[in-house]
Design brief:
Length: 351
């Protein structure tokens, strides 16, 4: 088992990759907008999960997340046909599609849906295993397979990377760590300005705020969605450690990102990471920010610290009034270096 932590102009960007309707702006809606469904992926690869016991625990965790979301909106689970008969923990409310997968990270390898005019498309950022760090044969093809199944155009962005490496407010503003994008393991030969132009075009956004992030310390090169998330136009919720480990490079990157977002004029609320948790490993990702906003609910993590778990849930209720806040034990995902947001990808409401 490999932990994710262990292990020039906009017009030019649009025309370079053969987008048939380049003059029509694409728009990725905010996550909190109404969904048609949530897409998820079933982890099953023994090349990725060499411990069968931990694989079963991870599958049980994914099933619990899917079953919880399915109480609020449709969930489509992608899995190879030979796995369908083994997915006994899944609710009957979860629809299973025969699209082969290896791992669970639907935010990164699943379809990024966007509107191009009045047509729903898949705005395609090509997954390559977080810069060729993890084996995959199926996960890199998932977005295209979903597009084909739904008969949607697949619109290339000209980028290698993962949608988990960026967050956007659905109103034209995006945030990202350079380390996840301006990196030769994803986009060799492209500078930050070229990558920014392509990201803005892929999401239909107007402005990007970059923070440096952290190269080479985890498999994602420090995805922003583990740290800071938009909860509305110009509003950000992020978690910071109250007492960071001495000389922790992540602590330095966290503080740098916080200061950049504040200096950019964003309304940033900080919630504390848990001080006491069930898993004590330094590599464990205890991110309250890695939640998922589905129809009528926020699905979030709890880590066994009653004080910070409650404070995080209260903050989410304030940022998303009128929605139910549900906290789940997803420690298996934290051990892998991710969370609930990493395991989900929304499809906007159609019609």
């Amino acid at each position: 088992m490999m932990s994710r932590r262990q292990a020039l102009a906009g017009a030019t960007a649009l025309t370079m990759f053969g987008q048939a309707r380049a003059e029509v702006r694409m728009t990725v809606p905010a996550e909190e907008d109404v969904h048609e469904a949530t897409f998820m992926q079933w982890p099953n690869s023994r090349a990725v999960y060499d411990d069968p016991v931990f694989l079963r625990i991870t599958q049980d965790t994914i099933a619990e997340i899917a079953n919880t979301i399915a109480e609020f909106e449709p969930v489509i689970m992608l899995a190879p046909a030979e796995e369908h008969g083994r997915m006994r923990r899944l609710s009957q409310k979860v629809e299973v599609w025969d699209i082969p997968t290896e791992d669970l990270w639907a935010r990164d390898s699943g379809p990024l849906f966007a509107w191009q005019g009045d047509e729903l498309v898949v705005s395609h950022v090509q997954f390559n295993g977080w810069g060729r760090k993890q084996y995959h044969q199926n996960d890199g093809a998932i977005a295209g397979e979903v597009a084909r199944r739904l008969n949607l155009p697949l619109v290339p962005s000209g980028l290698w990377g993962e949608p988990g490496g960026v967050d956007h407010d659905g109103h034209g503003l995006m945030i990202a760590h350079e380390s996840s994008w301006v990196n030769d393991n994803r986009n060799p030969g492209l500078n930050r300005y070229e990558i920014e132009a392509r990201l803005l075009a892929a999401y239909g956004a107007d402005r990007m705020i970059w923070a440096p992030g952290l190269w080479g310390e985890d498999i994602t090169d420090y995805h922003i969605d583990a740290l800071a998330r938009f909860t509305g136009p110009g509003k950000v919720l992020m978690n910071l450690p109250e007492a960071p480990y001495p000389d922790d490079p992540f602590a330095r990157a966290v503080n740098e990102t916080h200061d950049i977002l504040v200096d950019a004029g964003l309304d940033v609320e900080v919630i504390a990471e848990p001080n006491r948790r069930r898993v004590s490993s330094v590599d464990f990702v205890a991110s309250y920010a890695n939640y998922y906003a589905c129809n009528g609910a926020i699905i979030a993590a709890e880590f066994g610290d009653p004080e910070t778990d409650a404070a995080a849930l209260d903050a989410l209720k304030r940022h998303y009034p009128g929605r139910e806040a549900v906290a789940l034990n997803v420690d298996a995902l934290g051990e892998l270096g991710g969370g609930i947001h990493c395991a989900t990808q929304q499809m906007p409401k159609v019609g």
